[in-house]
Amino acid sequence: MTTIRFGSSTGPSLLARTSKRTLDVEPVEKANFDPDQLQQCPFDKSHQIRACRLSYHLLKCKKNHPKLAKELKTCPFNACHLLPRHELARHTETCPNRVSVGVKDVGAERKWDVPVRSQFTAAVTEDWEKELDEAAPPFIWGQTTVACVLQGTEAQAFNAVGAKFRGPTSLPW
């Protein structure tokens, strides 16, 4: 039997490591993340729907069963959990999608947090008042002003496109 290994010759791949970790996960918890797992519709018990399509199916079944939709309440942690009103409190305490936010979680430093750099002041070399005084001359059709500014002469009419082309006779505004 041949063993197939993924990754480079320097070490195992990350895929091999992550697959080993997922074997330790309980089957019930792993089933919550499987998009192809079949789940039962709370409105019609004969409906078996894939987990990835359940939210769309619930919207359609809710329209077909309005009386039952009024009796069922939605879980605050997962919109696909529809339960009778009297079971909602118990489900809220034991919901597998429940995320606890405690004091220890808020202050704990996480592995993937990006460190925030302290603000620094850059040397201020810009003078906006001076730049306003040295503003470029306005654009005038048919005149080149770049050469005039560099040479210090008056602007002259200049046509760089040739005699075949002409400028517009009217302006667009």
From TrEMBL:
InterPro entries: TRM13/UPF0224_CHHC_Znf_dom, UPF0224_FAM112_RNA_Proc, Znf_C2H2_sf. It comes from Hippocampus comes. One of its GO terms (molecular function) is zinc ion binding. It holds the Pfam family zf-U11-48K. The keyword Zinc applies. PROSITE patterns: ZF_CHHC_U11_48K. The keyword Metal-binding applies. Keywords: Metal-binding, Zinc, Zinc-finger. This is Gametocyte specific factor 1 like. Residues 38-65, 72-99 form the CHHC U11-48K-type domain.
